[in-house]
Amino acid sequence: MSKNKPKIALVLTGGGARAAYQVGVLSAIAHWYPRVHTSPFTIYCGTSAGAINAVSLASYASCFRLGVKKLSWLWHRLNTSRVLASQPSALVGHLLSQTGQRFQSHYQPTQPFGLLNNRPLRELLNQTISFNKLNYQLLAGHLNGLSVTASNYQTGQSVSFFQGASHIKPWERARAVGKRSQISTEHLLASSAIPFVFPASRIGHEFYGDGAIHQISPLRPAVKMDAERILILDLTTGIRRPEQIKHTAPGLAMLGGHLMNAIFADTLSADLEHLQRLNQVASALSPDQKERLGLRHIDVLHLRPSEPFEPMANRYYSHMPLALRSLLKLLGINASQDATFASYLLFEAAYLRQLIDIGYRDAHNHQSEILSLLTD
Question: What positions constitute the catalytic site (predicted)?
């Protein structure tokens, strides 16, 4: 890695199926680079579904376009059955198994609860992500650091598992720690285990769930891994306009969507404001003062979807397997009432392609800003 090359971090937030949007943005960026070119990013930080995208790209840091092409190929061919067991027999069998465990003797070990079985996702990750390439990218200097954030159910801490250069030290701050690890499928399953929806993943002797829970500082891993510039690909779509609001009593669909938004969206804005204040302080200090206080100016570009995802989720909700829709209906979740919850779980090709297209257009609309961050 060139000493003069700025350390640019790519931060990919969580959001289930919404993470297809990030693929669209990255596809546009890849088209602006030569066919054989190292990645403009040397630091990757991911949470939940964003962690899967981050690890996939980091394993191809030596050839950015190839990494994006492989990631795009995967998302264009993704469907619900490749993420969770959606056949009627599989759904019923999983629910019966989960119910039976509640009646076991207390000394019998129980499996973590999850409404849905994500075993197909485990198999998909094992087939498509080359974890062994991460060490090569680090040794070759194409990668400075990679982090995957998960939530420890036992301690209540946000844990960022990182694999990076030897000078990067583990950290521990208020309810957030960084642990050096060899990133694996288990870390990705843990980071993407949406509470109640997917079962927690066991790492060592502890159980972990979705990384967005307890994540009070989403930008901390990038800062701790020496990022000088940060591109954030956010998956939240902003506050709804008055004409989009339904003045009805909230049912389980609306409550579930509200909780999903709270899990994935509430902390990033506060962390951005905090970083902006630190930048203002750093700008007012002399180089000696900044070095003594450990402060540096970090340029940030925050990109988020220009269109809401809920109308599209409502439009393509019927593409979801019938058995899964029936289960959600039994629980009182219906896209016609509120499609927010569905927008996170709708791993169907037509919907995902729409999100990819939006991401691609948004990147082109912000081309000058993105290239300024990556190349100046």
Answer: 48 (nucleophile), 210 (proton acceptor)
Closest CA to 213 of 152, 256, 271, 274: 152
Instruction: Answer yes or no: 376 catalytic.
Output: no
With 0.85 as the threshold, say if the pTM is over it. yes
Per the listing, tokens 């579930």 go with 256
CA distance 59 to 46: 13
Residue type, 145: G
Contacts of 192 (CB under 8 A, 6+ apart): 14, 16, 48, 49, 51, 52, 118, 121, 198, 210, 211
Q: 151-167 burial, b if ≥16 CB within 10 A, otherwise e?
A: bbbeeebbbbbbbbeee
CA atoms of 359 and 370, how far apart (whole Å): 13
pLDDT in tens, 234-256: 998 765 555 555 555 555 555 65
Given the residues 181, 184, 210, 217, the one annotated as active site: 210
From the candidates 48, 151, 181, 217, which is the catalytic residue?
Answer: 48
The stretches of 202-333 forming alpha helices (DSSP H) are 220-224, 252-265, 268-283, 287-293, 310-316, 322-330
Rounded Cα distance, 80 and 82, in Å: 5
Cα-Cα end-to-end distance for the chain? 17
